[in-house]
Amino acid sequence: MMVESNLLWLIPFLPLLGAAINGLFGLRLQRRFGRKAVAVVSVVLPLISFGLAVLAFWRLPEGGLLLDQLWSWIAVGNIQVDLAFSMDPLSAMMALMVTFVGGLIHIYSIGYMADDESFWRFFSFLNLFMFSMLVLVLGDNLLLMFVGWEGVGLCSYLLIGFWYKEKANAKAGMKAFVVNRIGDFGFLVGMFILFWSLGGTWSDGAYHVDGRFSLTFRELPALVEAAAHKTLWGVPVMTLAGIFLFIGAVGKSAQIPLYVWLPDAMAGPTPVSALIHAATMVTAGVYMVARMNFLYVQSPTAMTVVAVTGAATALFAATIGVFQYDIKKVLAYSTVSQLGFMFIGVGVGAFWAGSYHLLTHAFFKACLFLGAGSVILAMHHEQDMRKMGGLGHVMPVTRWTYWFACVAISGFPIAAGFFSKDEILWQAYNSAGLLVPGWSLWLAGFLAAGLTSFYMWRSYFMTFTGPTVKVHGHEPTEQPRVITMVLAALALGAFAALFIGIPALWMGTPPRLEEFLAPVFTAAEHLPKVYAHGQGHAMEWGLMGASVGIAFLGLGLAWWLYRGRRNELPARLKTKLPRLHALFYNKYYVDEIYDATAIRGFLGIGRLSAWFDTVIIDGLVNGVGMLTRAFAWLDGAIDAYVVDGAVNGLGLLVRKSGAGLRNLQTGRLPTYLAGLVIGTVLVAVLTRFILDVYA
Question: Are residues 545 and 628 in the same domain?
Fold first, then answer.
């Protein structure tokens, strides 16, 4: 069922309007009316978008979608792409999450950025970020999704490098931009493969059009199913398309090997970190795989690549997070790890579970980042946890909201994070039909979950327990209500979201979110499982108990080692195992390896290309130029000295002869008579001489 709507386009348009107003007139507004004018424009318009998203959600028919077809965008041959927005259950969940969490981050930013001289520019970029993400999730076709996909990449560059006068910040923004371009190339290749496979067939060295081609999500499932038998270079096209599209997701959602940009993204203001990690850019890759579920279920190989990459990233990033001291770096690696959990979910075919973890993660990760921002403000922008401590005594709201967010991410069953993470682990264990056993994916996720609990509680105890530190001789203080109220709202969301994901094991009925999203994920209904429905209750209970147990183990170990800074064991271990500590602390030297190989390699290729261009190409061009100039000089010399010389010489001879003869023309009669007499005499003499000779 399809219901026409005229409201969906307004959801992304209003943040775009805010970005335009502040981008064009923000400085003038700020100078004339103060920062409040900029804040009102920037915050009110996204909140109206949230209201419209709620309205559209309530109008959403069961199992149907809302649609806004604005106008025909591309119409070439058998290709028809409209500028259209649609809302089905999945995009409804995403739009509500982006506008609600993003709106709260906008409110928080009013307090965090209050003293920044580029207040107006910051909010213009922030609004543009929301617009791009909303285009990505509401776009009715793959091409429009790619427009939003590129938009969030641009905004991440602008916001990560917002304080661009510091070289490290500008470098971090550029790093994010370049790494994402690598992933985006894969995304484009995936779209081209779909174009070739769905719109026609290669045969006899030529491309033959089969019928009308479409990139619309409503029409793609049937086209994909019809083309599932096709191959390209001997490989099923759905496998190729799925893997190349996933390369784009690896870049956006910071998975191995393209995760390196996300930890450096901490260079931007903390609200930017929260928006990137919780509600916008990094969730784009997970959303894309979930949206294209009908393609991935056609290829166990592609699904295996997604799941294995997620499992490896979840565990790998968690081991790094254990050894970080920068509070934002800890949270950054936790995001990389949690995104790995989401990819495990969508990779094993539990698309709803991966989407649910995306939703719960938005709440607790935004709460964690903004809580860290509150701490950083109180510490006068100090981010090293070794220089913190005891802040729980003077910052109670920040402390307890951060505490509950740690509960959520660690996987305790009083917060939503437990239910989404545990459902992913169970579905991974229960998966079948992939190229790796499900238990191996579960084990990697299980170990990553234990490490997550440890390093998150480590950050809590190092920051909020022990004697209270002083900054410049004064105790830190709690932040204004514009910050603390946002933290409370996000913590409440991290709790309330559990009610839509309580498993059937507890309630006897499927989770409400699973039922809500079911119309989008019908293609995954028949994926093979180890245990049929209801047969694995004992195993599921056992794995759930193990998850709770390892969460408590991580909490207990962090409490023992870091509560109040009373345990000297971490310092002794660091001293005894310096190389091992350096390996983890320096993130396995991946950045250094990339710098020594890929980066220097490409720079070397660039220098070689520059040398070839300067010496060879320019040499050839300059040599041809020199020869041309030499021939031109020779031609000029011949023209000047030979041709012009002959012409000028003849003219000179005539002129000299004329000048000599001109002396005979005196105009005097006596002279002429004398000449006549002399000439007559000479002629007579000459005649006589000739006659004598011949006589």
Answer: no
Which is nearest to 540 in space by CA: 447, 439, 422, 409?
A: 422
3-class DSSP assignment, residue 469: coil
Tokens at 324, concatenated = 């970080």
Tell me whether residue 340 is in a domain. Answer: yes
Please give the model's pTM, rounded to 2 decimal places: 0.88
Longest dimension (CA), the chain: 158
Give the position of tokens 């204004």.
480
Q: Is 400 exposed, middle or buried (0-12, 13-18, 19+ CB in 10 A)?
A: middle
| Residues 627-683 pLDDT 10s | 988 998 888 888 888 887 888 888 888 887 777 666 666 667 777 777 788 888 888
Compute the radius of gyration of the chain from its Cα atoms.
Answer: 39
82 CB burial (10 A radius; 0-12, 13-18, 19+): buried
- Give the tokens for residue 484: 């603390």
* pLDDT on residue 209: 59
- 313 and 445 part of one domain: yes
User: Three-state SS for 525?
Assistant: coil
269 preceded by cis ω (within 30°)? no
Tell me whether residue 162 is in a domain. Answer: no
Alpha-carbon span 323 to 330, nearest angstrom: 8
- H or E element: which one contains 68? strand 65-76
Distance CA 99, CA 115 (A): 25
CA 255 to chain centre: 12
Domain-ending residue, one of 531, 561, 585: 585
DSSP 501: -
CB burial of residue 79 (10 Å; 0-12, 13-18, 19+): middle
- CA-CA distance, 326 to 337, in Å (whole number)? 17
Q: What are 473-517's pLDDT values in tens digits?
A: 888 999 999 999 999 999 999 999 999 999 989 988 999 999 999
Cα–Cα distance between 239 and 552 in angstroms, integer? Answer: 40
Q: Is residue 93 part of a domain?
A: no
Domain span at 618: 598-664
Q: HSE on the CB side for 278, CA within 13 Å?
A: 31
